[in-house]
Amino acid sequence: MEFFGHIINGEEVPSLDGATMPDIDPYTREQWATIALGSKADADRAVAAAREAFENGPWPRMGFEKRQQLMHRLADLMEEHADELAMADTRDMAKPITQAHHDVTRSILNVRFFADHARGSLADAYPMDTGHHGYSRWEPVGVVVAISPWNFPLMLGTWKVMPALAWGNTVVWKPAEDTPTSATILARLAIEAGFPPGVLNVVHGYGPDSAGAALTENPDVDRITFTGESGTGKVISGVAAKNLIPVSLELGGKGANIIFDDADLDNAVHWAIEAIFRNAGQVCLAGSRLYVQSGIYDEFITRYKAAAEALVMGDPKDPSTQFSSALASEEHFTKVES
Questions:
Q1: Residue 125: which residues within 8 A CB-CB, separation 6 or more?
Q2: Residues annotated as catalytic (active site), given as ranges
Q3: Under CATH, which number does the domain 254-337 receive?
Q4: Counting CB atoms within 10 angstroms of each CB, which of 22, 85, 123, 247 has the fewest?
Q5: Does the domain made of 2-120+138-250 have the CATH classification 3.40.605.10?
């Protein structure tokens, strides 16, 4: 059974106390991997590694071009390991494998986009009456803690981690405890790509009274970015405020699709189906409500029902599966069923 450790200071390591947690495949309901279970001590050593890399390492000082080259090298390696990355998310949360491959493709684009965007970003210049000029400049701030959710493990993780890295920050990434493995694989690839030690660290564990809480409470952190549910977001905001740490929150929600009489019904039905059934509805902007103008209501509902019933349900590892017959975890299943 494969072991996935923390990535700290350029090495894959077990927890200091040797603690582990099982990684359960929601479809088979069997353990398929063993994960290092982080404690406050593991979180603190990851932050210390990131701080050392920022204060004394080459990453913030190497310039946009060199960081860009290393990030594109990472993207190249992700393409080479796309099957491994996709299967990791599928086994962790039962995401249909074709959708997991789509997420890997988007993750690679995230890496390449931010690598290029950072190098090409322009700030502002301000004319002054004295004959001088003032200008703004984007600078790295230090150590960024990134806490990512379980529904799009790799994609939303790269969405947080890559912009921070592209501008010269160092990162400690804590993926969701239910979906930890693609983060470790990505960090392994970053080491292979030539990222200096301490630049990208990954710590596994839970939130309250575990690695997550320790990361958000650490006063040596400069920024926190979190995607997840609103209750946890409130807790993180409160803790971060004590240390005056700015926080970026994406707490999600649910949206409505509004469909008018003049809509292209084939297109409207397709995207309405995608909006609620993709990833078994486990999407932070799921289109869980439909407002349909009365003139097309009956026809739309008929087409919508037929399209929904045509979705292929089954084993998420089967490329023909469109709707996984398992949710991401037993806890989430219980919540949905309630």
A1: 133, 134, 135, 136
A2: 250, 284
A3: 3.40.309.10
A4: 123
A5: yes
